[in-house]
Amino acid sequence: MSFLREAALVAGKDLRIERRSRVALQQIVPFAAIVVLLLAFALDSDSTMLPRAAPGLFWAAIFLATVLAVGRSFGVEEANRARDGLRMSGLDGGSIFVGKAVAVAVELFLLEVVVGIAVVVLYDVTVRGVLVLVCAAFAATIALAATGTVYGVLAGGLRARETLVPLLVLPAVMPVMLGATRAFQAALDNAPGDAWPWVQLLAVFAVLVCAAGVVAFGPLLEET
CB count, 10 Å around CB of 216? Predict the structure, then answer.
């Protein structure tokens, strides 16, 4: 079986689990929406701050949702002993990493559409630089999903994984949060020339963390 077919098999398995359980729809999406709503109320006294703060608040909500999605991805396997099945499946560790990261990324892409609409409506944001926004969101989402998957397998076998995952992931994705926020802010300010360097940074980070995940995920899965 080819690398890509193995990755597609793992991604399909994770997405089918989420489609049947509807955890992403019933828990993660409402959680992110509540975060955006609460932050809007917190800054409502200064309405001029909302559009300026929108990019950072958007990515803060997406990061929190990433932590939940990654924890869910590995928590289900640990609870049902499916991790042992992955170890004994004969699948390449890199393909398992790519499959799980793709599944998380798909969930995040869908979530970003919902949260983005909420931010535009609640924060009175005028959308500009759509191409930059899409490219930045794509690169940042891949980077978040890949980083979360790497650290998720590290914490997956531990009882305290629910608290360890955010502690491990947040420092690692700080460049992503910074780059995505700056790129979004520049795009919304109608200054795409200032946004593209940040998009390039996000793309480089995504490539590096994906390459590291493909190499390291197999040994990490065996050890944890």
Answer: 16
Please state the separation of Cα 190 from the chain's center in Å. 26
User: How much is the CA Rg of the chain, to the nearest whole Å?
Assistant: 18
Q: Which domain holds residue 180?
A: 3-223
Measured distance between the N- and C-terminal CA atoms of the chain, rounded to whole angstroms: 25
147-177 confidence digits (pLDDT tens): 999 988 877 655 555 667 778 888 899 999 9
Position 198 scores a pLDDT of 96
pTM above 0.85, yes or no: yes
Place of tokens 């709503």: 37
Lowest mean pLDDT among 44-58, 141-155, 200-214: 44-58
Residue 8 phi, psi (nearest 5): -65, -35
Give me the pLDDT at residue 25, please: 62
Residues 6+ apart with CB under 8 A from 130: none
CB-CB neighbours of 84 under 10 Å: 11
The one-letter amino acid at 43 = L
- Where helices occur in 80-191 by DSSP H, the ranges are 82-88, 93-122, 130-155, 161-172, 174-188
Look at the chain and report how many structural domains it folds into.
1
Neighbours of 18 (CB within 10 A): 20
Q: How far is CA 164 from CA 35, 67, 169, in A?
A: 21, 10, 8
